[in-house]
Fold:
Amino acid sequence: MQTMDPSLSGQRVAVIGAGIAGLTAAYRLKEAGANVTVFDAQDVVGGRMGDRRTGDLVYNSGARLVYPFGRAFNRLIADLALQDALVPLHRLSAQCVSPHGEHTIELMPSPRSLAAPGLSLTERVKLVAHALAMRGAKRHVDPDWATSALRVDPALDDTTLAAYIRETLGPNVLARMVEPVFRATRSFNPETLSALFYVSTVPHMIGESTVHTLKGGMGRVCQMLASRLDVRTATPVRKLRRHADGVELALADGTTFSADHAVCAVEGSLAGTLIDAPTREERQMFDAVRYNALGVVHYGFSQPLPPRMNFAMRGLPGRIATYQQLPAAPAQGRPLTQIYCQLTPEAADDAVRQGLEDNLDVLIRDELRARIPGFDRHVVQVTNQWIARKLPVFSPGYGARVDAFWRWQEVGMNNANTESGTERVVYCGDWLSQALLTGACASGERAARALLGRMQAEPARLAA
Ligand SMILES: Cc1cc2nc3c(=O)[nH]c(=O)nc-3n(C[C@H](O)[C@H](O)[C@H](O)COP(=O)(O)OP(=O)(O)OC[C@H]3O[C@@H](n4cnc5c(N)ncnc54)[C@H](O)[C@@H]3O)c2cc1C
Structure:
C-alpha cells in the first residue's frame, strides 16, 4: 500500500487501456495521490482478462488461470482482499493424444511427469537433473519478468525454446511434454519463442501443484479496480500527443482530453498507431512487437458430457489443439454443457488465409462429427471467438529489446532536463514484461513507479 503524497493531488494522469496493466498502473497512481482518468475502447474493462456471455455460453475474453507464482498479481489480490475468491485446481492435467495413444500431462511439472511414455532412459535422467537445476535457478528468476532469465544465461534470449529443450532434455521431451502444453495453452510453437518464458517460470512451478480460477469470474479483479477509479469505457483514444508541459488525447468522438502525463497500456502493436511523432527508441520497440492469434469455437450441447481435456500432439491430423468438455454448472452460471475447441497455430493461420476468422466452425466441424456421434443433433449454440492479439511473441532477441526499452523509459523519466515531452508518457503491458496476467500487472506497477518518481521531481524542477 502506497502512502498518499499531497504534492501529487494536482497532477492529472490519463491511462489508455483498462486491461490489468493499465488498471494496476491507475490504481497505484491514485493510491499515491494522483488524479487519474482511464480510457478504454471497449464497452467493458478487463481487456484480455474478462468474462463473456453469448446466449447461454459463457467463456473468457482471455486468461482462465491464476498461477501461484505471480508476485504482482498476488499483491493486487491481497490489496483487494480477494484471497478467498481464489478457487484452487489441484494437479490440473490433460490427456495428450499422440499417434501412440494417450498420456497424462500435468500443467505444473511434478515427479509424475517422469512417467510420460516414450522417453529414453537418458531423457528421464536428464529430466531429474534439469528439475534440480531449475530449482537452483528459482532465486535468480522473477516469473513476472521474462527477461529475468537473462540473469541465468543471456544466451537464452537468442535460443529458441525448441532448441533449448531439445539440447537440454531431448527430442521426446520436446514432442511429448513441452510442445503440446505450449500449443494447447499458449498457442505457440516452441520454435517461434525464445527460452525466456520457460526459464523464468518453470523454476517457480516445481513443487507447486495448484493453480487457481477466480470465484465470480476472472473479470472480477478488473471490475473491482475500475469501481475505485474514474474509468471511461467505449471511449477509444485515436492519438496521443505530448509536449513539454503535458499530453493531449484525441478521442474518437472528436473531443480532446489534457493531462500532465499518460500511461499507454494498450496492446504493443497498437501503441505505435496511437503515439504522435514516436522517437527512434519507440519505433524500434513497436517494430519488434508481434502477437499470435487465437481461434476458439464454443459449442453449447444438449447432452451431458463428462469433464475432459485433451491436448493434441503436433503432427496428428486435425485442427484442434485443445478440446475440453465442460459439464453444465448452473450454480456457477454455466447453464449448458459446453465444448471448448481451440485451433492449432497452423489452423489459425489457415483461418486467416481463407478469411474464416468469423466462421471457424467450418474448419473443425467434421473433426467433431467423427469424435462425437450425432454431434450436429446435440449442438444448440455455437460461438466463434477470434483474438487477433492473444499473446506477445517473445521471439529470439525480443528480451534484449524490452530491457533496453525499459532502460530508455526509466532514464527519460529520471532526467529532469528533458524538454521534448517524451518523459510525459510511459508504456506498460504484457508485451513489456511477461505474457501472463501477473506480468501485465508487474509492468503496470513499474510504469506507475517510474511516473511517480517523475511527478515527485516535477514540482522541484518547476520551482528551481
Ligand atoms: C486466450 C488467452 C488466454 C490466456 N490465459 C492466461 C492464463 O490462463 N493466465 C495468465 O496469467 N495469463 C493468460 N493470458 C495472458 C493475459 O490475459 C494477458 O497477459 C493480460 O491480460 C494482458 O493484459 P494487458 O493489460 O497488458 O493487455 P489487455 O488486457 O489487452 O489490455 C489492453 C486494453 O487496451 C484497450 N485499448 C486498445 N486500444 C485502445 C485505444 N485506442 N483506446 C482505448 N483503449 C484501447 C483494449 O480495449 C484493452 O482493454 C491469456 C491471454 C489470452 C488472450
Summary: The chain has three domains: 6-48+218-290+394-463, 100-208, 305-387. The chain is about 35% helix and 20% strand. The chain has a mean pLDDT of 94.
